[in-house]
Amino acid sequence: MANASLVIPIAYRNSSVTVPDWLNKGDNAWQMVSAALVGMQGMPGLVILYAGLVKKKWALNSAFMALYAFAAVMPCWVLWAYKMSFGHRLIPLWGKAGLAVSQDFLIPQALLPSTHYQDGDIETAAIQPWYPTATMVFFQYAFAAVTVILLAGSVLARMSIKAWMAFVPLWITFSYSIGAYSIWGGGFLFQWGVMDYSGGYVVHLASGAAGFTAAYWVGPRLQEDRDEFPPNNLLLALTGAGILWMGWTGFNGGDPFAANVDSSLAVLNTHICAATSLLTWTCWDVIFFKKPSVIGAIQGMITGLVCITPGAGLVQGWAALVMGITSGTIPWYTMMSLSKKLTILQKIDDTLGVFHTHAVAGTLGGALTGLFAHPSLCSMFLAVPDSKGAFYGSKGGVQFLKQLVGASFIIGWNVVITSIILLVIRVVIPLRMSEQELKIGDDAAHGEEAYALAGQGQREKTIHNGSYIDNHIP
Q: Where is it mostly found (predicted)?
């Protein structure tokens, strides 16, 4: 035993370099797994969900819009947007731009010299996890990427891919980073005590409001596509939906930034609400349309996941059940009934109903969090004194009002900034494809098609720009 140290691998002898004393291996492992789960929601989850839900001629274009966004966010994130979202305060709703790729990001946030705040500008302390800041950069990147992919669901089947390529970095820079800093990064809504456990506002309400706005400026699909838009592969869509659902384990379970009891509660509440919402939506379909709908079940699943997100680790299990029933009912009503009555909802062509599944469900989840947030659970996650929902006392009514104000800010900012970004892009790049490209679909946009059905894999000649083009695969 005296010579036991001689068998220790050399790589582990210098623990100050390889395994520093401050590193919490369990928390770091859970956070990396959570980040991977969130990332898989975007790629491949939403990529194949979109590919399956749209008309056959748009399968490839829809998948590519999601794939491009997932990749394009990364350089923006590490070069400037992460620090805008979680760095030094520039103004009360925005952080200073900066790099997130230096050696400093191999040490934990708590050891960085005044990384978040300076000159005593913090009133509400931020959580300081004991693992490399690089882990947090990756985790938060996955959230940013998923947000803009969700937004894409509103403008599928007509937005110019070149306009989309310009839109993604601009929106992440000027819209997403504002919401993230204001609510999560120490901005004014964070200081005020607005609750958003895992992105009901920052991710889902933002994507829903921005997507609806983008759909207005880009314009509607061809009338023939609006009239008839059958999913080309529902089994593929179900696969994407399943990845999205299971990926939400990391989406909500990773936001205590530790493998603790609150993360366990957040995971359980997430699945309670999702399952309850799916079943509730399906029941409404059966009651009113006499048949259960697979697409409806997917929509109900998503609204449940979105609704629980603002309060996943802040509410008790019974509240998650109530939130599931509510999220399977109110968005169902706005999508299946109200959208047929309100002129604005009929005029604006939101391809996959992102307004209902994310904006409505996100606002609903934030409001219900303001009602049901338990004081003891709030104290485990938030550093705001006496945080609690209205259900637990008169002072909780203030929290409910704060939640509504927070939602109003996210909606207003995204409507205005998304409009400005698209109007600027429109000056140099058309926002939508030409009429001819809209009739052709994937082949016009990419020179490729999702399904090669003619012969032994080759595709038939198609008319594009007035001439025949043989795009057969060699």
A: membrane
